[in-house]
């Protein structure tokens, strides 16, 4: 650099005095020599040099060693590889001025193609005007593929969004559990749906009467709801719909169809659906408690198809217990409680709690045989919540006495929404139960009620004896079953596979040790209650809780509390199965590939298969006798002969076409009165029986010819009646006596 030239900075300005520019720094050991091609004009301080016109379409120089736009020109230096002299920068070629209206640069061409104004040649080109690769020449038609590239992905319409939401809803865990529960119920109750129009499960006694009960509820709600509890049977007694569990919750299903065929079909469908609800409710409860799907499935099948339940297949009110675990699952979900994870306030939902109380209320409408023990359990849960809330208010995390007095008030454990939901839900449950209980309280009490409780109390060994309807243990346990006083209500085996899994759940489980101990204590208490008076005479166990209820509430059979023993054992078993599945998955994760092999999968499904096999049924499905044509034409009040405790329940089913008033009525209900009726009409037609029937308001007697063989009325249709002051009408299948 000559002495006359001032050193300049890399940006083109004048270097300050006493400082060395970047170009003057040595490179390696030798200083880099520079040879400027032009002298950089200097500008006075504070003034900006004029901007030279850039070439159109080119990007302003901004790289290292180049003069940025808006600065004074600087000689372009190029350094040799080993410190040699740099070559002088090539001078920029002269660019002729563009003609008016003619695009010269690629940026101008692109702008003209897109109908945009061309760049001003007098202004520097911006970065967006830089030519892009693949641009078409001027005058060429637009690329057709750009149409597709410009169109973005369209959002789905309402129909498609609705279909996707429906698909997700139908393939969720609980819809899949529902499908599986229904399919399993059809298989495990087979052949109920093989001939659903003319067969009933187990026998023609209680199933026929309960089919009539459901049909009566649907008929009277349309015709005259005020007469709900005054059924057409057991004439002239009152509140006869309260004979046994009313199954009032099934009344909406009776609004469609009429007659005995529809009643039988309706009963069979509800019978299968009740089994499906048993499995689904238990699955939901155990899943809410914290078990995995496999453990919950084992618990659901063990609870729904326990061998002892096969002896109750003739009692739809006892089979219809699926709402109990389902309501408990909803209540636990609403309160954010899980056996495995404890209380989780973020998972609380007043809506789920309200749904749980509604399901519990529906369960109480099905009957008091299971509803009263369920009410005790709900009351115990409310007491536990109240105690927990009290402890929450009293307990203080601070250790200083002064902090306890200065601390702000403690918030409620559940919050006002859940507290209000529980108050309203419990009130609704009690209100509905009390309204339904009114006609039951009006029924006369049975003086032998306590003796019946003692008679039906099962011994401890009954928990190891299967019923006759069991396909696995029915024949094998025939001898020990004969030693029971009433085998139908005392064969209480919940399943040996369930016993084994529950016992394993005490040793290893996903439940915590204290929870397992609590479950075991609860199982013990439930077994003690199930034994009735066979444990300490029942004076401190069963009788204080259930012995004071009138006979109409049907608390005389302690063995039906086996439902709670089975549910608690199923929860223990689910913990063991869940822990086994967890260990199996951990073992499978170490394999290559990391998923369970076929033998390991079979091992995980073995508990499910064992509990399902033990629940296989051998239940009879007798054919329902065809309804006599006279039952569709003859009006009441009437008496149908022959009459007996079992056959009268079929007569009640036949009356579902016309619902005429009947003196007939089966079962153990009003046993003294029905026994008197049958003894007084045993010699019909005679003067004494006719006078008795007239005294109770019966004006017609219908004698069924094909039913009287072997009874005391076998020749009643051939006896002359002219001297008895009654009328007689012969029909193709019956004889009608008009008593006047």
TrEMBL record:
Residues 52-77, 106-118 have a biased composition (Basic and acidic residues). Keywords: Membrane, Transmembrane, Transmembrane helix. It comes from Actinoplanes missouriensis (strain ATCC 14538 / DSM 43046 / CBS 188.64 / JCM 3121 / NBRC 102363 / NCIMB 12654 / NRRL B-3342 / UNCC 431). Residues 16-34 have a biased composition (Low complexity). The keyword Transmembrane applies. Residues 134-144 have a biased composition (Pro residues). This is Glycosyltransferase RgtA/B/C/D-like domain-containing protein. Residues 1-149 are annotated as: Disordered. The chain crosses the membrane at residues 265-286, 293-312, 318-337, 349-368, 374-392, 413-441, 492-511, 518-537, 557-577.
């Amino acid at each position: 650099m000559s002495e006359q030239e001032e050193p300049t900075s890399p940006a083109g300005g004048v270097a300050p005095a006493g400082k060395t520019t970047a170009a003057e720094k040595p490179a390696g050991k030798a200083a880099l020599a520079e040879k400027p091609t032009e002298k950089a004009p200097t500008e006075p301080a504070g003034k900006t040099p004029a901007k030279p016109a850039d070439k159109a379409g080119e990007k302003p120089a901004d790289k290292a060693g180049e003069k940025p736009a808006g600065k004074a020109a600087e000689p372009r230096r190029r350094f040799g590889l080993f410190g040699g002299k740099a070559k002088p920068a090539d001078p920029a070629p002269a660019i002729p001025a563009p003609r008016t209206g003619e695009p010269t640069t690629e940026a101008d061409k692109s702008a003209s193609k897109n109908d945009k104004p061309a760049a001003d040649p007098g202004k520097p080109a911006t970065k967006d005007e830089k030519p892009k690769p693949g641009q078409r020449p001027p005058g060429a038609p637009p690329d057709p593929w750009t149409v597709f590239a410009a169109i973005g992905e369209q959002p789905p319409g309402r129909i498609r969004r609705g279909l996707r939401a429906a698909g997700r809803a139908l393939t969720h865990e609980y819809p899949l559990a529902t499908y599986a529960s229904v399919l399993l119920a059809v298989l495990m109750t087979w052949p109920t749906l093989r001939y659903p129009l003319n067969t009933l499960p187990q026998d023609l006694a209680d199933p026929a009467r309960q089919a009539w009960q459901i049909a009566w509820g649907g008929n009277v709600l349309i015709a005259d709801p005020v007469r709900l509890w005054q059924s057409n049977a057991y004439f002239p007694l009152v509140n006869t719909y309260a004979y046994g569990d009313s199954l009032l919750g099934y009344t909406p299903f009776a609004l469609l169809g009429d007659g005995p065929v529809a009643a039988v079909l309706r009963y069979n469908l509800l019978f299968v659906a009740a089994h499906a609800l048993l499995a689904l409710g238990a699955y939901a409860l155990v899943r809410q408690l914290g078990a995995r799907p496999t453990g919950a499935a084992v618990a659901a099948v063990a609870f729904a198809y326990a061998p002892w339940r096969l002896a109750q297949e003739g009692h739809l009110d006892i089979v219809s217990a699926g709402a109990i675990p389902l309501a408990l699952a909803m209540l636990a979900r609403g309160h954010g409680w899980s056996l495995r994870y404890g209380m989780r306030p973020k998972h609380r939902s007043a809506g789920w709690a309200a749904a749980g109380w509604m399901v519990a209320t529906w369960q109480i409408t099905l009957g008091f045989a299971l509803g009263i023990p369920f009410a005790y359990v709900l009351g115990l849960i409310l007491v536990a919540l109240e105690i927990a809330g009290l402890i929450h208010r009293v307990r203080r995390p601070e250790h200083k006495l002064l902090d306890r007095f200065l601390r702000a008030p403690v918030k409620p454990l559940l919050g006002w929404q859940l507290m209000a939901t529980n108050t309203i839900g419990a009130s609704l449950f009690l209100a509905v139960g009390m309204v339904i209980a009114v006609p039951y309280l009006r029924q006369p009490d049975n003086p032998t009620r306590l003796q019946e409780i003692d008679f039906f109390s099962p011994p401890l060994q009954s928990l190891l004896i299967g019923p006759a309807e069991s396909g696995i243990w029915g024949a094998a346990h025939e001898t020990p079953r004969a030693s029971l006083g009433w085998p139908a209500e005392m064969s209480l085996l919940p399943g040996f596979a369930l016993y084994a899994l529950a016992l394993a759940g005490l040793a290893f489980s996903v439940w915590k040790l204290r929870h397992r101990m609590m479950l075991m204590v609860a199982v013990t208490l439930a077994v003690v209650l199930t034994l009735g008076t066979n444990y300490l005479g029942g004076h401190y166990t069963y009788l204080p809780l259930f012995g004071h209820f009138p006979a109409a509430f049907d608390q005389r059979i302690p063995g039906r509390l086996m439902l709670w023993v089975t549910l608690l054992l199923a929860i223990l078993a689910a913990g063991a199965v869940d822990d086994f599945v967890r260990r199996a998955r951990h073992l499978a994760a170490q394999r290559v590939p990391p998923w369970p092999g076929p033998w390991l999968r079979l091992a995980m499904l073995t508990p499910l298969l064992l509990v399902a096999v033990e629940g296989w049924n051998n239940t009879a499905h007798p054919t329902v006798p065809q309804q006599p044509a006279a039952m569709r034409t003859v009006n009441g009040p009437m008496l149908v002969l022959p009459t007996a405790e079992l056959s009268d329940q079929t007569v009640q089913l036949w009356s579902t076409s016309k619902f005429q008033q009947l003196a007939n009525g089966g079962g153990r209900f009003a046993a003294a009165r029905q026994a008197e009726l049958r003894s007084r009409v045993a010699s019909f037609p005679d003067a004494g029986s006719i006078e008795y029937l007239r005294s109770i308001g019966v004006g017609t007697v219908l004698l069924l010819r094909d039913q009287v063989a072997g009874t005391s009325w076998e020749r009643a249709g051939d006896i002359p009646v002219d001297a008895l002051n009654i009328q007689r009408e012969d029909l193709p299948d019956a004889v009608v006596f008009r008593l006047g």
